[in-house]
Input
Amino acid sequence: MLTHLSIKNFTIIENLNIDLQRGMIVLTGETGAGKSIIIDSLKLVLGSRADIKMIKHGCKRCEITAIFDLQNISEAKQWLKNYGMNNEDNEDECIISRIISTDGRSRSIINGILCPQQQIRELGSLLINIHGQHEYQTISERDQQRNLLDIFAEHESLLNQVQQIYLAWQQTNARLIQLQQLTKDHGSQTELLNYQIKESNELALQENELEDLHQEHKRLVNAEQLLNDCNTVMNIINENNLSIARNKLIGIKEIDSKIEATYELINNAIIQIEEADLELRHYLDKVNLDSERLQWVEQRLSTIHDLARKHHVKPEELYNLHKDLTLQLQQLNNSEIDLKETLQQVEKLSLDYKEAANKLTDSRRQAAQKLSQQVTKQMQQLNMPQGEFAIHLIPLKGKSSSANGLEQVEFLVTTNPGQPLQPLSKVASGGELSRISLSIQTLTAQQEVTPTLIFDEVDVGIGGKVAEIVGRLLKSLSCSTQVICITHLPQIAALSHQHIRVSKEIKGNTTVTEVETLSNESRIEEIARMLGGINITKQTLAHAKEMCEIIKNEL
Output
């Protein structure tokens, strides 16, 4: 769960530090005080898009840090271990920071380690789920409706299985189409490859032959110059007087042994020169003015280059081309067998998909019935006494299939007696839609394993008895997960375990947001403000106190 949030220089927030408890937490305050900004800061630290406009005016950077208790979140702890980002001092704690600078740079840090936004978002999805005040606007979308039903059904592993089989099925089917096209042109392709391989066989190019031919051609073209230059070198070597010098040194070293080293150097030089002379003679034996050999080498090189141009490859790639052509012919000859095997794979994957997809349909059907009953019950509690909610599974047209199964999911509703069930977006008003959305969110949230749920003003458009019921729905969720709720309703605020007031103050020439965790007494005053507005009377204070006492006695 989220235990601490630190915000520095973010929009109108200068420096905030908020400690958060378990259970249900409410954030209250006047409109514009900065409640939603706090939620925006959480979104930012968990990987949402950064903008330098978020930095408080006059500051060079903003920094947001969130600390999480992972004691009961094994999946998040395992994720951190997998990426080598676990907190070595305390594996049950995770510290995530986001720093944005005015130069446009943005950094995300997990337990002191820099990481990309994609990883932050992955980890964030294991820690927090934010239900926004405009969530009801997306609940009319069929993809979102299917997603909510799947969450409620708790069949993630089955859905993943369907998606994986579907992907393998489509990939194998694409391979099948390629093989069918290949076998369709089998005759002409085989004829062409056989002809190309025959040409390559006739050439009989050996590995490294091209390089050897180039070297030989260079020697043959320059043979006359090589002969002349080598003979000149040999003449120079043979004309040297080092032997005379060596003989003189023999006499000297008999008189003075200190000259021994000089004698050895000259003696070794003579030996090396004699070896060089021998090597040159061997070399000259191989150098000859062979015009016929030169003509043959040039013709061989020309043949190699011509065939390389014909196949649109470099001459040095021609040797490997022969292997490639042989492999292509082998694959083509095996394509009939591959086609048969791939067809069998496609048929098997098709059956596997249908089996898994039918199980998914059955699971959705059961979950749809259960969710419909529960949403209908909550609708009637939420001031829609004649309301009815239903979920239809609409088979995809024809024999269509998809990675998400064999059907579309559609939410239907009626809010008045005598009216037939119709798509959610066509029937419900804005207020009704928000209440239905909240009902579905709270019901599906019970199936989530996310340790912290945030509801950002999802109570818009309700009040009175309905507000109290909504508050109790949220409080029931907080028995198993941390619930953070931004609200303007005293009925909801009175039900919280922790009450945080957000206020806006002017300091000098700037506006700053401040937070305060309320004591029992100050909490009553805040609820009285929410009940009565600017002027708080004894009656509103008494009413606020009574609300809190009733809730306290129920616990």
In short: The first strand starts at residue 2 and ends at 10. Residues 1-133+457-517 form a domain with the Rossmann fold fold (CATH 3.40.50.300).
